[in-house]
Amino acid sequence: MVKGLISVAWADGQICDDENEVIQALLEAFSATPSEIVEVHQYAKTRRTLDDVPVSELSYDDRRVLLQHAVLLTHVDGVHHEDEKALLEGLCTKLRIPELEARGIIEVAERRAATLPKD
Fold it and tell me: 97, 59 in Cβ contact below 8 A?
């Protein structure tokens, strides 16, 4: 799931410090081992796209959680770029989440993102 988020973080052409912090926090929340953390940080050094999202490794529920986290990640730097919005649409297609359901997930996640503290 975290590798999928790295693709989202790269949507605007860079991974900012706030996005790195979110990725690190998720690695900790998922109890990643030190070697997994190194692997993910190495993976994040190269620009990633939706083609790199490992959909086959994600369950039905994981795909929805990935979408929720992706929405939050696109808001963490305080700027929601058009590239990020387009990427979220493509992510929904890639994850095979029906449009109506995806819209609901995105709306809820955007409301949550609006409550995030701003630097």
Answer: no
pLDDT of residue 119: 60
Assess if CATH 1.10.3470 describes domain 2-114: no
The label of the residue with tokens 């387009």 reads 86
The rounded distance, in Å, linking the Cα atoms of 106 and 42 is 29
- Boundaries of every domain in the chain: 2-114
d(CA 119, CA 115): 12
Q: What is the average pLDDT value for the chain, to the nearest integer?
A: 91
